[in-house]
Amino acid sequence: MFDISIYNENCISGARKHIKNSSVDLIITDPPYGIDANSFEKHYNRNGSNVNDGYVEIPAEEYVDFSQSWISEAERILRPGGSIYIVSGYTNLFHVLSALSRTSLRLVNHIVWKYNFGVYTTRKYVSSHYHILYLTKPGGKVTFNTYCRYGADEHDAQGGSLNYRDREDVWIINKEYKPNQKKNRNELPTELLVKMMQYSSNEGDLVCDMFLGGFSTAIVAIGLNRRITGFEISQKIYSMGIERLKDIKPGFLLDETRVPQPNTHIKRGKPWTEDEIRRVMERYSELRAEGRNKRQSIDTISMEFSRGYFSITNILKSYQKEKAQGGFLSEN
Ligand SMILES: C[S@@+](CC[C@H](N)C(=O)[O-])C[C@H]1O[C@@H](n2cnc3c(N)ncnc32)[C@H](O)[C@@H]1O
Questions:
Q1: Radius of gyration (Cα) for the chain, nearest Å?
Q2: Quick one: which of 71, 94, 53 has its CA closest to 11?
Q3: Which pTM does this prediction carry?
Q4: Does residue 221 have its Cβ closer than 6 Å to ligand 1?
């Protein structure tokens, strides 16, 4: 499987020309940030001499219209139920959010991607994160592969659920360190792209990147046996990207991805111990006190204790009954 349709064109006119309505399963994209090249290097602490030139930036005064145009194309090409991840700095994030609010796309998560090599500053806090907006298009089945990386029963040494941790909305993923190698400005790390693609697509799905830059999305898509389409407006950057693709073998990342343990639900159907019930009650109170609603709290407990949703609901009900009657689980 090696299906690539990558264009050296403006993504707005290019998408209109080449991509049919509702044909893309997943969009992962990282638009220009609307800040000039010199201040970008300063802002994001980069050594400009190692950065490929040819990068096309969007003037600040055009950013609003530009965001609206590419986002409405993204909405058109995405299939109902399809997902989109947009990486953004904070300078123009509000324009991106404002353009999104004028579409049918539904904001599911606002992910914070924390990276290493933050911007060194002395008179303010160090900037070391990007925003990733994760949205879906209503009207179809959403692909979200909950157990693609960690099974429901996998825990760390302290008993914490690995699956739960992997699905938290703060991601700590380092940028790739490539000393003395030329790379694109803001090249996204493979690990970050793999994570988004594993959760939100399957082999054979069509992935699109409207702003390819160093072709990192294309390389990971091919590496995970997804089809890829996308655009890069700069001739120079496009040619370098095409060159990089020459050495890429379809599926080359599949052997490197972690295989999750199957969900055995070992505890399902097993009797509850008093101690386990007590710990569940404590955890439930904690989660509610943190502001989570009943459903979210039970979902979390289900992951952490490897117990079914309804089993936990029943335990909560019988606890409340016992408590009302002053039974063995009452707090007094
Ligand atoms: C932030 S970079 C993308 C970096 C990429 N995610 C990577 O990992 O290398 C944005 C890219 O969009 C390109 N670009 C700017 N305007 C564009 C447009 N209208 N259509 C397509 N590409 C555009 C820029 O030249 C730049 O390479």
A1: 23
A2: 71
A3: 0.82
A4: no
Does residue 73 line the site of ligand 1, with CB under 6 A?
no
Each residue of 142-174: pLDDT tens digit?
A: 999 999 999 988 999 988 899 999 999 999 999
- Pick the residue whose CA is nearest to atom 6 on ligand 1: 30
**Do 245 and 211 share a domain, yes or no?**
yes
Beta strand residue intervals within 180-299, DSSP E: 206-209, 227-231
**106-119 vs 127-136, strand pairing mode:** antiparallel
pLDDT digits (tens, 9 = 90+) for 25-46: 999 999 998 876 555 544 444 5
Q: How far is the CA of 55 from the centre of ligand 1 (A)?
A: 7
Within a domain: 263: no
Q: By residue range, what is the domain housing residue 12?
A: 4-256
| Per-residue model confidence as pLDDT tens digits over 164-201 | 999 999 999 998 876 666 666 679 999 999 999 999 99
Comparing CA positions, the residue from 125, 98, 145 lying closest to residue 258 is: 145
Q: What is the CATH number of the domain that holds 102?
A: 3.40.50.150
Number of folded domains in the chain?
A: 2
- Residue by residue, DSSP assigns 105-164 as -EEEEEEEEEEEEEEP-SSSPPEEEEEEEEEE-SSS-----TTSSS-TT-B-TTS-BHHH
Instruction: Pick from 19, 55, 56 the residue to mutate for probing ligand 1's pocket: most ligand atoms within 8 Å of its CB.
Output: 56
CA 56 from chain centre, in angstroms, equals 25
The rounded distance, in Å, linking the Cα atoms of 300 and 308 is 11
- Examine the fold and report which residue of 230, 256, 282 is the final residue of a domain before the chain moves on: 256
